[in-house]
């Protein structure tokens, strides 16, 4: 049995140490928001936060995940109103929607480390997340909106 801290809760799982975290999340814990795309860390559909960084869960062994904290799309916001999620809805980013949990997790990790990224930084952070529907312009616009909302919220907290 291994203990994993996922979305702020500790879970005990019975899994082989080399089992990818993706399958632990989906098959053993029922957290279906993280998607399987390619299984080779190329598409980004399986992106979660591991110790605050955007990480491909299809290539992270559960034994390594046991040494840190994991946040999935289900744990990003209790009510679905993380600034990135709000911006995604406002800009109608999803088309088919399959890649969106990975896109949102990559975007939120970027904003956590850089509240005001430029286009080059956005492109670099999001480059490994593939959207087969091609909603990249909406993704970039939504990320800019989320960055503005995050900056405004932080400024408002400083004024209080």
TrEMBL record:
One of its GO terms (molecular function) is metal ion binding. The keyword ATP-binding does not apply. Pfam families: Fer2, Fer2_2. SUPFAM superfamilies: 2Fe-2S ferredoxin-like, CO dehydrogenase ISP C-domain like. It comes from the Bacteria. Residues 1-76 form the 2Fe-2S ferredoxin-type domain. InterPro entries: 2Fe-2S-bd, 2Fe-2S-bd_dom_sf, 2Fe-2S_ferredoxin-like_sf, 2Fe-2S_ferredoxin-type, 2Fe2S_fd_BS, Beta-grasp_dom_sf, Diverse_Oxidoreductases. This is (2Fe-2S)-binding protein. The lineage of its organism: Bacteria, Pseudomonadati, Pseudomonadota, Gammaproteobacteria, Cellvibrionales.
